[in-house]
Amino acid sequence: VDGARNEFNESIKLRPTYVPPKLALGRIHLSKQEFARAQQLADQILKTSPNFLPARLMHASALMGLADLKSARVELKMLLDRVPDLPDARYLMGMLDLSEKQYPAAEAAFKALADKKDQRGVMGLVEVMALTNRVEQARQLLQAELKNNPSNSMSMKLTLANISMRTQKYDEAIQQYKQLIEGDPKSAGLYLRLGDALIGARRV
After folding, report:
1. Distance between CA atoms of residues 117 and 166, nearest Å
2. Of 84, 129, 176, 192, whose CA is between 20 and 30 Å from 25?
3. Average pLDDT per run of 10 along the chain, which is 204 residues long?
4. How far apart, in whole angstroms, are the C-alpha atoms of residue 162 and residue 149?
Protein backbone atom coordinates (compact mmCIF):
# COMPACT_ATOMS: atom_id res chain seq x y z
CA VAL A 1 0.00 0.00 0.00
CA ASP A 2 2.81 2.42 0.82
CA GLY A 3 4.36 1.77 -2.58
CA ALA A 4 1.04 2.42 -4.29
CA ARG A 5 0.60 5.63 -2.29
CA ASN A 6 4.01 6.87 -3.46
CA GLU A 7 3.23 6.12 -7.11
CA PHE A 8 -0.14 7.88 -6.94
CA ASN A 9 1.45 10.94 -5.31
CA GLU A 10 4.11 11.03 -8.02
CA SER A 11 1.43 10.80 -10.71
CA ILE A 12 -0.42 13.73 -9.15
CA LYS A 13 2.78 15.81 -9.09
CA LEU A 14 3.37 15.13 -12.78
CA ARG A 15 -0.22 15.89 -13.74
CA PRO A 16 -2.15 17.73 -10.98
CA THR A 17 -5.48 17.71 -12.82
CA TYR A 18 -5.47 13.96 -13.53
CA VAL A 19 -8.36 12.36 -11.63
CA PRO A 20 -7.62 8.57 -11.43
CA PRO A 21 -4.59 8.76 -9.08
CA LYS A 22 -6.42 11.17 -6.78
CA LEU A 23 -9.37 8.81 -6.61
CA ALA A 24 -7.14 5.80 -5.95
CA LEU A 25 -5.15 7.68 -3.31
CA GLY A 26 -8.37 8.85 -1.66
CA ARG A 27 -9.54 5.25 -1.34
CA ILE A 28 -6.28 4.37 0.37
CA HIS A 29 -6.82 7.23 2.82
CA LEU A 30 -10.34 5.96 3.54
CA SER A 31 -9.06 2.43 4.16
CA LYS A 32 -6.54 3.84 6.65
CA GLN A 33 -9.15 6.11 8.25
CA GLU A 34 -7.31 9.23 7.09
CA PHE A 35 -10.63 10.91 6.44
CA ALA A 36 -9.47 14.53 6.27
CA ARG A 37 -7.00 13.67 3.51
CA ALA A 38 -9.65 11.73 1.61
CA GLN A 39 -12.04 14.69 1.86
CA GLN A 40 -9.34 17.05 0.59
CA LEU A 41 -8.74 14.90 -2.50
CA ALA A 42 -12.46 14.54 -3.13
CA ASP A 43 -12.84 18.33 -2.94
CA GLN A 44 -10.05 18.77 -5.48
CA ILE A 45 -11.76 16.40 -7.93
CA LEU A 46 -15.19 17.95 -7.42
CA LYS A 47 -13.91 21.46 -8.18
CA THR A 48 -13.40 20.46 -11.79
CA SER A 49 -15.83 17.52 -12.01
CA PRO A 50 -18.74 18.30 -9.65
CA ASN A 51 -20.93 15.50 -11.00
CA PHE A 52 -18.33 12.73 -10.83
CA LEU A 53 -20.11 10.04 -8.80
CA PRO A 54 -17.03 8.20 -7.41
CA ALA A 55 -15.69 11.46 -5.99
CA ARG A 56 -19.09 12.26 -4.48
CA LEU A 57 -19.14 8.84 -2.80
CA MET A 58 -15.61 9.32 -1.52
CA HIS A 59 -16.58 12.75 -0.17
CA ALA A 60 -19.62 11.31 1.63
CA SER A 61 -17.53 8.49 3.11
CA ALA A 62 -14.96 10.98 4.37
CA LEU A 63 -17.66 13.12 5.97
CA MET A 64 -19.04 10.06 7.77
CA GLY A 65 -15.56 9.21 9.00
CA LEU A 66 -15.16 12.76 10.28
CA ALA A 67 -18.52 12.43 12.11
CA ASP A 68 -20.07 15.21 10.02
CA LEU A 69 -23.20 13.11 9.64
CA LYS A 70 -25.50 15.98 8.73
CA SER A 71 -23.37 16.96 5.73
CA ALA A 72 -22.91 13.32 4.76
CA ARG A 73 -26.68 12.82 4.71
CA VAL A 74 -27.15 15.86 2.46
CA GLU A 75 -24.49 14.49 0.10
CA LEU A 76 -25.99 11.00 -0.01
CA LYS A 77 -29.53 12.25 -0.46
CA MET A 78 -28.41 14.32 -3.42
CA LEU A 79 -26.72 11.25 -4.93
CA LEU A 80 -29.78 9.05 -4.44
CA ASP A 81 -32.07 11.70 -5.88
CA ARG A 82 -29.92 11.64 -9.01
CA VAL A 83 -29.32 7.88 -9.15
CA PRO A 84 -31.86 6.06 -6.92
CA ASP A 85 -30.36 2.62 -7.57
CA LEU A 86 -26.74 3.57 -6.87
CA PRO A 87 -25.66 0.64 -4.61
CA ASP A 88 -22.72 2.34 -2.88
CA ALA A 89 -24.82 5.37 -1.97
CA ARG A 90 -27.64 3.15 -0.73
CA TYR A 91 -25.18 1.21 1.43
CA LEU A 92 -23.63 4.36 2.90
CA MET A 93 -27.08 5.76 3.67
CA GLY A 94 -27.95 2.53 5.43
CA MET A 95 -24.77 2.74 7.50
CA LEU A 96 -25.53 6.37 8.31
CA ASP A 97 -29.05 5.49 9.44
CA LEU A 98 -27.62 2.63 11.50
CA SER A 99 -25.11 4.92 13.23
CA GLU A 100 -27.93 7.30 14.13
CA LYS A 101 -30.13 4.40 15.37
CA GLN A 102 -32.73 4.98 12.68
CA TYR A 103 -33.25 1.25 12.44
CA PRO A 104 -36.34 1.07 10.19
CA ALA A 105 -34.69 3.30 7.58
CA ALA A 106 -31.44 1.35 7.81
CA GLU A 107 -33.30 -1.94 7.42
CA ALA A 108 -35.11 -0.66 4.33
CA ALA A 109 -31.83 0.45 2.74
CA PHE A 110 -30.08 -2.84 3.43
CA LYS A 111 -33.08 -4.89 2.27
CA ALA A 112 -33.03 -3.04 -1.06
CA LEU A 113 -29.40 -4.09 -1.47
CA ALA A 114 -30.02 -7.66 -0.32
CA ASP A 115 -32.87 -8.00 -2.82
CA LYS A 116 -30.31 -7.20 -5.55
CA LYS A 117 -27.98 -9.94 -4.25
CA ASP A 118 -25.58 -7.42 -2.72
CA GLN A 119 -23.86 -9.15 0.21
CA ARG A 120 -23.42 -5.83 2.03
CA GLY A 121 -27.19 -5.65 2.31
CA VAL A 122 -27.37 -9.06 3.99
CA MET A 123 -24.66 -8.12 6.48
CA GLY A 124 -26.40 -4.82 7.16
CA LEU A 125 -29.70 -6.58 7.82
CA VAL A 126 -27.96 -8.94 10.22
CA GLU A 127 -26.52 -5.98 12.10
CA VAL A 128 -29.92 -4.26 12.34
CA MET A 129 -31.58 -7.47 13.54
CA ALA A 130 -28.89 -8.03 16.15
CA LEU A 131 -29.27 -4.47 17.45
CA THR A 132 -33.07 -4.77 17.63
CA ASN A 133 -33.12 -8.02 19.62
CA ARG A 134 -33.78 -10.29 16.65
CA VAL A 135 -30.62 -12.35 16.90
CA GLU A 136 -32.32 -15.64 16.03
CA GLN A 137 -33.82 -14.06 12.92
CA ALA A 138 -30.35 -12.80 11.97
CA ARG A 139 -28.95 -16.32 12.38
CA GLN A 140 -31.65 -17.78 10.16
CA LEU A 141 -31.01 -15.13 7.50
CA LEU A 142 -27.30 -15.94 7.43
CA GLN A 143 -27.98 -19.67 7.28
CA ALA A 144 -30.29 -19.21 4.31
CA GLU A 145 -27.82 -16.94 2.54
CA LEU A 146 -24.94 -19.39 2.97
CA LYS A 147 -27.10 -22.32 1.91
CA ASN A 148 -27.98 -20.55 -1.33
CA ASN A 149 -24.45 -19.21 -1.82
CA PRO A 150 -21.93 -21.53 -0.10
CA SER A 151 -18.96 -19.60 -1.50
CA ASN A 152 -19.91 -16.36 0.25
CA SER A 153 -17.25 -14.48 2.21
CA MET A 154 -15.45 -15.63 5.31
CA SER A 155 -16.79 -12.59 7.14
CA MET A 156 -20.36 -13.81 6.63
CA LYS A 157 -19.44 -17.29 7.87
CA LEU A 158 -17.67 -15.81 10.89
CA THR A 159 -20.69 -13.66 11.68
CA LEU A 160 -22.92 -16.73 11.57
CA ALA A 161 -20.59 -18.58 13.93
CA ASN A 162 -20.55 -15.65 16.35
CA ILE A 163 -24.34 -15.36 16.29
CA SER A 164 -24.66 -19.11 16.88
CA MET A 165 -22.61 -18.52 20.02
CA ARG A 166 -24.85 -15.66 21.12
CA THR A 167 -27.95 -17.84 20.69
CA GLN A 168 -26.22 -20.74 22.50
CA LYS A 169 -26.28 -22.97 19.42
CA TYR A 170 -22.91 -24.32 20.47
CA ASP A 171 -22.83 -27.43 18.30
CA GLU A 172 -23.48 -25.33 15.23
CA ALA A 173 -20.87 -22.78 16.31
CA ILE A 174 -18.29 -25.55 16.77
CA GLN A 175 -18.93 -26.87 13.27
CA GLN A 176 -18.76 -23.37 11.80
CA TYR A 177 -15.51 -22.45 13.57
CA LYS A 178 -13.92 -25.73 12.45
CA GLN A 179 -14.82 -24.94 8.84
CA LEU A 180 -13.33 -21.47 9.20
CA ILE A 181 -10.13 -22.92 10.67
CA GLU A 182 -9.80 -25.18 7.62
CA GLY A 183 -9.63 -22.01 5.52
CA ASP A 184 -7.35 -20.14 7.93
CA PRO A 185 -5.44 -22.70 10.05
CA LYS A 186 -3.06 -20.10 11.52
CA SER A 187 -5.75 -17.85 13.02
CA ALA A 188 -5.29 -17.78 16.79
CA GLY A 189 -8.60 -15.93 17.14
CA LEU A 190 -10.55 -18.73 15.49
CA TYR A 191 -9.02 -21.36 17.80
CA LEU A 192 -9.90 -19.17 20.79
CA ARG A 193 -13.52 -18.90 19.66
CA LEU A 194 -13.67 -22.63 18.99
CA GLY A 195 -12.46 -23.21 22.54
CA ASP A 196 -15.20 -20.96 23.89
CA ALA A 197 -17.78 -22.88 21.87
CA LEU A 198 -16.52 -26.22 23.19
CA ILE A 199 -16.72 -24.93 26.76
CA GLY A 200 -20.25 -23.67 26.13
CA ALA A 201 -21.31 -27.04 24.73
CA ARG A 202 -20.03 -28.86 27.83
CA ARG A 203 -21.99 -26.56 30.12
CA VAL A 204 -25.31 -27.20 28.40
Report:
1. 26
2. 84
3. 89 92 95 96 94 95 96 96 94 96 96 93 94 92 86 83 89 92 92 93 82
4. 19
